Amino acid sequence: MRLFTESDSSCCFGCTLGMIKEMTGSREIYPNASVALVAVEARHTLAPPLTPDQEGRLKELVASEFPLHQPVQMLTINLGLNQQQPPTTANQPRFTNRSRTVAATFTQQAVVIETTEHEHFERLVDLVALSIAARQEVSPVDGMERLGLRYLDEIRVPPDGDEIDWSQWVEKSLLGPIEVADKVGFPAGQHQGSVGYQFDPNRALTLRYGVRSGHAVQSAALVRKMPPPSPFFLLDIDSFWIATGVIPEFNRDRIISFCHELHDPVNDLFEALITERLRNEVLRHA
After folding, report:
1. pLDDT value at residue 251
2. Which domain holds residue 174?
């Protein structure tokens, strides 16, 4: 397994996925989970825009889970060889549940499932399966280029004085810059780092983390139960597969299988990054 860093962010992160304990039994589903957003993006080869009839049929196929049609406007910037062309906008099919906490979006290059009210992974997989099957029935696309599974957690803990000792709640190696600031007497504010894990040429995972304030997820398209603005610890885990040679078929069963492969390291990494105190005093409380 190869470890690599992304962008200019440095990381004192001492825990690699190879050190994470093997999970036995079923995953724990926390009553007070910290997840703020989960998204699955199945990116495919460029497809023509859906016709009104095709969009209507798509609506019928996903109506059991996504009854509301709420198209999203996409901006495209066209760059010609000799001059920049005026940007164009087009509505892309987007469907949500009635509470507008789950959405399925169908663009010319991707099928995207997003939720701000994540129940459990198996439920998410069901929504992905429905959306992929509907897309392929209405207007099949040629191949899959990338599949990404992203979990964004805002970890909030009970206040304990003026400052939060995050070492009580998350893996200490995530706090390198803060601990250095304490030693030299500098006040530490928000910080963010990132680290990436490469499993093989096709599969990788990126972790972004750090102390933040307010909210990391504010979506105009999806409704979210917003906690009061406060300091939180961000864990943003993006597990993804990319086609590096052969472009496979855009197949529902293959995509579901890949989703499971991408989810296992997300779950293992999250569990390795939090403390038992966080589990007992926050996550396990309804």
Report:
1. 94
2. 2-77+85-283
